[in-house]
Amino acid sequence: MAFSPEKRKGTISGIIFVAIFAAAATYIAGLGPVKALGLSPLVIGIVMGIFYANTLHNQTPVEWQSGITFSGKKILRFAIVIYGFRITFQEIMAVGMDGFLVSLIMLSTTLIFGSWLGTKIFKMDRDTSILTASGASVCGAAAVLATEPVLEAEEYKTAVAVSMVVLFGTISMFLYPVLYTTIIENASGFLHMTAREFGIYVGGTIHEVAQVVAVPASVPGSPKEMADAAVIVKMTRVIMIAPMLIVLGLYLAWEAKRSGGEGSGKMKLVIPWFAVYFIFVAGFNSLHLIPQNIVDIINEIDTFLLTMAMTALGMGTIFSKFKGLGLAPLYTAGAMFVWLVAGGFVITKLVVGA
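The structure corresponding to this sequence follows.
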């Protein structure tokens, strides 16, 4: 137990150690040039954690490891639950059925396509494939973090998935505004999108919430309708973390029974309860019983807790573990990126423009 009498001091020290890193990541993410790139504290945190893991890891007291592990597991689950304060059911209703359908179609197709591509075509292990696909299909690094406990994946696999989210999410931030201003806005027929359609396209296909916010802001003279549609559709994808994880748990249980492994006679159902609690928190937030300024403070605290979790995962990422993966994650994430950009455009036009 992390807080047993013999481990308590080391656990607390480890948590404080991670919190110091997370505080530094938060400060760096707020600096002008870094903020302009749309890099969240979560991304900065895992980079710092990886740097520590491959340089100073052996200089840290071994007793602190229980606190680092606690941050990457328990604090992570709690932070995902509190993430529900970023969403209301009213926001999801406001975007309409077409925005919801775009979110649902893009999430499910990207998750299935990416998982299949990673395991069957590029011969990656199951966990890395699903983690990479979840990050692309739902909401970037936060989705990878939420999926990791269900798979019980190793830290370095989570780091691989997050790095793919960062790479292709960053490319999206620069690509989408150029696509809109040079082609989509000025085209006619099928290639043309209204501001609302483009907002739904952005929210339904770009990885991170921060990146979704940055794209409409990068379009000269973009109307508020574009930004509103993008953010609301993106948050619709975020709330789908919960049903996605529950379905994933059911699939893993079925797969374990089908494979005929030890204990397969009785199907073991993995229910990610933190995902269920996430829905309850979002539902409670929809009642607007808590003043908005308090909710904003809760969300800031939650971002810090997620940064701690990401940093802790980075601290468990040793480069030597990456041997054998090769370019498979890059190929898998790249193929999903092409589907999100091209396939997402077609899906949005067919659903919204119909």
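The chain has one domain: 8-352.
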